[in-house]
Amino acid sequence: MSDQRETPEDAKSQGPNPSAIVRLSTAYWESQTLLTANRLRLFDFLADSDRSADEVAAGLKLDPRSTALFLRACVGLGVLAQTAGRFQNTPVASVFLVSRSPAFMGKVIHYSDQLYTSWGRLEDALRSGQPALPAQSYLGDDAERTRGFVMAMHDRALGIARALVPLLDLSGRRKMLDVGGGPGTYSVLLTERFPGLQAEVLELPGVAAVARELVAAAGASDRVSLRDGDYHNADFGSGKDVVLMSGMFHRESEQACRGLIERAAACLDTGGLLVVSDVFTDPGGTHPPFAAMFGLNMMLTAADGGVHADADVQRWMAEAGFGELRTAALPPPMPHRVVMGRKL
Ligand SMILES: C[S@@+](CC[C@H](N)C(=O)[O-])C[C@H]1O[C@@H](n2cnc3c(N)ncnc32)[C@H](O)[C@@H]1O
Fold this sequence. Notes:
Layout: H1 8-13, H2 19-39, H3 42-45, E1 51-52, H4 53-60, H5 64-77, E2 80-83, E3 86-89, H6 91-96, H7 106-119, H8 122-128, H9 143-167, E4 175-179, H10 185-193, E5 198-203, H11 205-217, E6 224-228, E7 240-246, H12 254-267, E8 268-281, H13 289-301, E9 308-309, H14 310-319, E10 322-329, E11 336-343
Parallel strand pairs: 4-5, 4-7, 5-6, 7-8, 8-9
Antiparallel strand pairs: 1-3, 2-3, 8-11, 10-11
S-adenosylmethionine is lined by residues 139, 153, 157, 180-182, 185, 202-204, 207, 230-232, 246-248, 251.
């Protein structure tokens, strides 16, 4: 992701230079430009033909002068191109920012858009130790927001799955528990790839309701079931041969993660596989820079949110009775790492 960018530390090695500081202090201009373009569905409007700034302004009901400035800024960001005063999507925008494209990222970007105001409250969160956005709002309490969150997770998982699913050899395995499985996307794709595998997704009721629709729409209801429950106290059952914990350690404290690993061990048969996928840092918690920033994002949006180091997760798994431990990194731009181990 952003590992290549210059940091103030790099600048120091060439002598003091404020470029990185200037860059960091204005980086939100660029984020807000992309978020707004996505919200306005600008890329859909330009999907079939190039347009002048006045045409865009008229079509999207915007002010013409402001729109011209906005479109030129989008050209600078590389998401639009300008030829003879007319604007068009660049190839990257056509693939990832137009809603009819199978690789559309707009719902995930919309979720980032919703978090923009929470980031504006970073100082409050640092003082209070409380998230700026209560997690319940997008995990059930606010139905529309919850649906948006689940749909964003679904689209994101479809992209990540292209790298994650081939990493996992689940041949011959029969019963998978997908803890905090969100939209159930990985369960649907893994049970499709490994015939005979049945998955149970354990989820909070508001999220599970939307996930049920997605699983049914994928025609996978006969092999993926949804169970309403809180993974902190729900019964994990027994006789499982795979437990998937994807994207939920970043919501939980070390103590809670250790408890989840121990309960995974208890429900798995000997030889059963535990897969923990998430954004993780190197030991020390500062790198990759995206992962450290992700920790802040989670701090702002979940009571115990943060980021862990995959080396710590491996150690917790070893202490809970897992062996053959290994971590695989998904290819960039995916920041995820996948920790795997077998119950001894
Ligand atoms: C970032 S999402 C990951 C979803 C999915 N596993 C994936 O990787 O796409 C975290 C999920 O954990 C679920 N979750 C959070 N707290 C939970 C709890 N106490 N019990 C059950 N699920 C929970 C959320 O509803 C959300 O779907």
